[in-house]
Amino acid sequence: MKNVIFNKMSRLIVVTAGIIIAFTSMVHSKDAIKIGTFLSVSGPASFLGDPELKTLKMYVEKINAEGGVLGRKLELVHYDVQHVAKKAVTAVKRLIDQDKVDVIVGGSTSGQTMAVIKLVEKAGIPFISLAGAAVITDPVKKWVFKTPHTDILAAKKIFNDMKENGWNKLGLLSGAGGFDKSCRKSVTKVAPGYGIEIVADETHGKGDTDMTPQLTKLKNAPGIQAFMYCGFGAATSIVAKNFKQLGLSLQHYQSHGAGSKSFIKNAAGAAEGARLPAAALLVVDALPDDDPQKSVAGAYRAAYEGKYKDAVSTFGGHAYDGLMIVVEAMKRAGSTDKEKVRIEIENTKNFVGADGIFTMSATDHLGLDEKSFVMVEVSNGTWKKLK
Q1: What pTM does this model have?
Q2: pLDDT at 28 exceeding the cut of 60
Q3: Which residues are CB-neighbours of 194 under 8 A, at least 6 positions away?
């Protein structure tokens, strides 16, 4: 009798345990997929982080409304790190150790991104940066990817434009930030291969609000034919104002760090005629109808401007591409397993995004080339695509 009771109890325990395991598995399968992000939503780099966060929120909501990914909702876990690398490190530690995110899409600036690379590499978590410096993915790091064009691609695009116009003597001004320094390094490295001579090379300090002394030196450089600024944020508009105030008649170039209407607005008319390489998103209406980017970038622009009543920028486009590349990688992997997702991000092929058409590999964690850039010029307070 005791054996019968014992056997019945044993079977009951096994069945109960099975139910608990099945229930736990079912609950786990429905847990949200956590997308971690750290962005410069406030502070001097907010023109980067604000549209990036708005874009991520908008598309997480959209994806969830359409059923989520792998039958699970997405959850966006965000920290505002302003423009401070130390805050980025703290945020990423929390995303990894406490929030247990599945992937990270973020890092508005190159300085923030470079500060956290060791953390994500050690943790083994897929990370797509939204910053522009070439050093982020060159050399390749196993777990690190990016969506914005690099400063090297920007330099090449600008130098091709200079050559087409018969200019080969450049004056360069750079800021003190991580992107600024990387941009300067790329420009000086690539210039000789294009027959470009840098006849003046000036820098300014962090937070400077007047670049007239540096621009005056550039103005007096022997044979100077064109000017380029390596920087982003408020400094781009300050440089444009000082450039105009000095009456410089040189061709004015900016990097893709000025790819926002805020550059034009804050320059108060002084940005007219400035040229820069940018994602086709800024001039999507000028793309031919058979360009695959036209429908994708056009849909993103319409959604963003419709929801937020503000002009689209290339920076929000970086976030769109980063999130969508992650989502597609998870779908192909059929899992949120970090290594499987990393492999599928690396296997991204012909993904049409706002920044271009991405094809990544084990030796290329960006997946864009110079052709994915277009040259634009500020004309009548807006962007004009150059041929």
Answers
A1: 0.89
A2: no
A3: 156, 159, 160, 162, 163
Amino acid at 241: K
SS3 224: coil
The pLDDT tens digits for 267-301 are 999 999 999 999 999 999 999 999 999 999 999 99
Instruction: Give span(s): CATH 3.40.50.2300, the chain.
Output: 33-150+290-368, 152-285+374-385
* First vs last C-alpha separation in the chain: 92
Q: What residues pair up with 276 in beta bridges, in sequence order?
A: 376
- Cα 153 to Cα 211: distance, rounded to the nearest angstrom: 26
Alpha helix ranges (H) inside the chain: 2-29, 46-65, 85-97, 110-123, 151-164, 178-190, 212-219, 234-245, 261-267, 292-308, 314-333, 338-346
CATH superfamily of 152-285+374-385: Response regulator (3.40.50.2300)
How many angstroms separate the CA atoms of 130 and 102, rounded?
17
CB of 256 closer than 8 Å to CB of 148: yes
Q: Which CATH architecture has domain 33-150+290-368?
A: 3-Layer(aba) Sandwich (3.40)
